[in-house]
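Section 5.1 Outputs to date
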Amino acid sequence: MDSTRHPRARRALVALAAATALAATAAPATAAPDAAPTGSHAAVTAYDDTYYQDAEGKTGTALENALHTIISHQDTVTYDQVWAALQDTDEDPAHPGNVILLYTGRSQSKAEHGGDVGDWNREHVWAKSHGDFGTATGPGTDLHHLRPADVTVNDVRGNKDFDEGGSAVSGAPGNYSDSDSFEPRDAVKGDVARMILYMAVRYDGGDGFPDLEPDDKVDNGSAPNIGRLSVLLKWNDQDPPDAFEEHRNDVIYEQYQHNRNPFVDHPEWADQIW
C-alpha cells in the first residue's frame, strides 16, 4: 500500500512527525545527582528527638558545643572496672565467652587478659600521654575510647598518632606502623576515627581535664592533640559504623556511662564540625 496516498496513513505520519519535533525541542531531563560519598548521608536514629534534640539543626561550633553538653552528662567507671566492662562492650556475638580485639580482630577468651604476651589488655585509643591524663577516672577510663587489644600490638601502637603508611605489624595483618604513626586495619579505621572525635568533643578543658583536640600532624608527644585529622575524617567516611560498633555504643549508654558517641549515631556530624 502507498501510505502517502492513504488518508489514514498520511494523518498518522503527520502526527508522528509532530511528536518527533516536539520531543527534539523539549528541555532535556534533569540528570540524577551524583551519589553522595560514603558516610555523608544523614543518619536517623531513635535518639534524635530525645537525646540529641538540642543538637538537631546545628552545624560547626554550635553543633560541637551542643554535643559536648549532651555527652558530658555521664556516669564513670574506675580503671579496674574497665576490665569487666570491656567484656560486655566488646563481646564476640558468635562466641559470648570471648572478646574481639581491636587491631587484630582476633576473638579471644575474656579470661585471658593481663600483661603477658598473648593476653589482651586495655588500649587507650586516644593515647593517655597525649594530654597526660593517665588512668584518671574520666578520660583515662572513658569506655568510648577504651578497647581490648593484643598486648604486643598495643605496645607497637604505643602513643603514636594515627596516619597511613609504615611497615606491616607482625601478628596483626592490615596494620602498619612507623616511628611516629600507626595505621589500623581497614575494618576498624572508622571506629578509631569516631573514638578520637568523641574524645575531642567530650573533653574540652572545662571540667579539670585537658582540652583534647585533633590536629593535622603526627608526633604530637605529650600535647593534648592527636592526628592526623584529615586522615581520620577520611576513615570516618570510608568505614561507616557497623552493627558491632553500634551495639557497643548501646551497651555503654544503657549499662555503664549513660552517654553516647554521637559520631557512631551520626557520622556525618564529623564533617559538619571539622
